[in-house]
Amino acid sequence: MLRILALHSSPRPAEVSISRRLSTELIVQIARAHPGAAVIQRDLAAEAPPHVGAALLAGVRKPELDRSAEEAAAVAISAEMIEQLDWADVLVIGAPMYNFGFPSVLKTWIDNVSIPGRTFRYDRDGNAHGLVTGKRAYVVTSRGGDYGTTGAEAGNFADSHVRVALALLGIVDLHVVAADWQALHPEARRDGYDVASRRISELVPA
Ligand SMILES: Cc1cc2nc3c(=O)[nH]c(=O)nc-3n(C[C@H](O)[C@H](O)[C@H](O)COP(=O)(O)O)c2cc1C
C-alpha cells in the first residue's frame, strides 16, 4: 500500500487556491495508479506548526529525561511531524509563491522536521547525509508570473527552496508541477493551469 503525505500551505481555501486544486488532482491521479493508497492531508495554513525556538533546539540535544516540560512538548511536536514524514512513501507539497517564496507555514514545517542527528547528519568533513531516504516528492507550485523552470536567480525561491531543504534530508527524487501566469488574464491563467495539469499526467500516467 502506497502512503501519501500531502502538505498544503496556501492561505487561500480549496475553492480558489490553484496549488490546492493541482495537489488534489495529483493525489487523485497517484491514488488511481495505486489502488488502496493511504493519504494523510496536513493543512499547514489551517493548523500552522509552531516556530522553532530555543526549547526545541535545546530539547533535541538532551536525553529525554533531562528535558524541561517546554522542551519535551516542542520535541514531541517535531517528532510527530517527522513520524508522518517517515511513514510516507510519497510527499505532495503545495508550495505556492507568495512574495518570491512559499508561505511561512511551510517553512515552519521544514524547520520542525530538519533535526540534526534525526533526519540528517554532517560527517567530520562537513558533508551532509540525509537520513530520510527512499521517498519521492512532488512540489506543486502556483505563481502569478512566468518563472518556467527558473530558480532562485530569477526570484523563484519557492520550489527551489523546497528542493534544497528536502535534499538535505535525503529526499532527492523530486518533481515540480508549476502553474505560471495566475495573475494574468483568464486565458493565460487557464493555459498556465493546463501546462501544470499536463505535467501531472506525464509524471503519473493514468
Ligand atoms: C500576497 C501575495 C503575494 C504574491 N507574490 C507573488 C510573487 O512574488 N510572485 C508571483 O509570481 N506571484 C505572486 N502572487 C500570486 C500567487 O502566486 C498566485 O495567486 C498563486 O496562484 C497563489 O497560489 P494559491 O492559488 O495556491 O494560493 C502573490 C499573491 C499574493 C496574494
Series of H and E elements: EHEHHEHEEEHEH
Bound molecules: flavin mononucleotide
CATH homologous superfamily identity? Flavodoxin domain
CATH topology: Rossmann fold
Tell me the overall shape.
globular
What is the CATH C level class, in words?
A: Alpha Beta
Beta-strand level of the residues, as a percent range? 15-25%
Q: What is the arithmetic mean of pLDDT?
A: 96
CATH architecture designation: 3-Layer(aba) Sandwich
Q: What oligomeric state do the depicted chains represent?
A: single chain
Supply the number of structural domains.
Answer: 1
What is the makeup of the main sheet?
A: 5 strands, parallel
Please report the distance between the alpha carbons of the first and last residues: 18 Å
Q: Helix tally?
A: 6
- Total beta strands: 7
**How large is the radius of gyration?**
18 Å
The main sheet orders its strands as 2-1-3-6-7
